[in-house]
Amino acid sequence: MSTRIAFLKGHGTENDFVIVPDPENTVDLSPAAVAALCDRRAGIGGDGLLHVVRSAAHPEARSMAAEAEWFMDYRNGDGSVAEMCGNGVRVFARHLQRAGHVAEGDLKVATRAGVKSVHLDKEGDVTVGMGRALLPEGDVTVTVGERSWPARNVNMGNPHAVAFVADLDHAGHLYDPPPVAPLSAYPDGVNVEFVVDRGLRHVALRVHERGSGETRSCGTGACAVAVATARRDGVDPAVTGVPATYTVDVPGGRLVITEHPDGEIEMTGPAVIVAEGHIDAEWLETMTP
Ligand SMILES: N[C@H](CCC[C@H](N)C(=O)O)C(=O)O
Predict the structure, then answer these.
(1) Topology, domain 140-268
(2) Catalytic positions (predicted)?
(3) Which residues are annotated as part of the binding site for substrate?
């Protein structure tokens, strides 16, 4: 029998992930192997992959090892690397807790966007400290068919363009990345969110994710949307001294985002482990050219 590589499947508001526990960072996860694992027909299927590695065992996380024992080596479904995944951090923490690596309560997770604070109980929602949003000056423009909208450039460790629209159907089928101008604003690509109002401090979004296509949810995107909506509404906790909480409905569920006066953004939402199994190592090797 060939070597088997353990995996789990999980999701956060239906943004789904293949989870590969690999404490000592021994599994060769090339972009092609990740894309094969995330393939929804010929592989396991997922919007992305969470490679679960001890920080001390990964060259990109070694410097964070003293603060965070575990590193979320996140990959998009096309095999590309991204700086951060908000829904992914919640699912990552849920896996660590179920695997007995961490207890309920507070923990730190190393990511390519720095160390994130997480609070989780035995079950129920998980809260992540997502850091601060950067809002580069100057709007960008998002286009779908005959329609174009000004969009807010927001960086949550990863890049976002947030467009307020009259109807989420105006985003079209989102099979392809919606053109964003100027291209120079996003040299490494961008996640694009389309937003409608649902009520006071309550919005809904659709998202085309860099490296994954349209997903049912984007955690960093929900944070970017909450901050862009607050600024559109003239709300800035750094000015008012009062936290601002927004409810963000995504196609896969609901996330609650709070921006604090110090700029820290907290996201709360579900994290579910659905299944576990084994990957055939010989098959995976054939997927790595
Ligand atoms: N596609 C994103 C990474 C995953 C973000 C999303 N799944 C989340 O929950 O934040 C990017 O390339 O920046």
Answers:
(1) Diaminopimelate Epimerase; Chain A, domain 1 (3.10.310)
(2) 85, 218
(3) 15, 76, 86-87, 158, 191, 209-210, 219-220
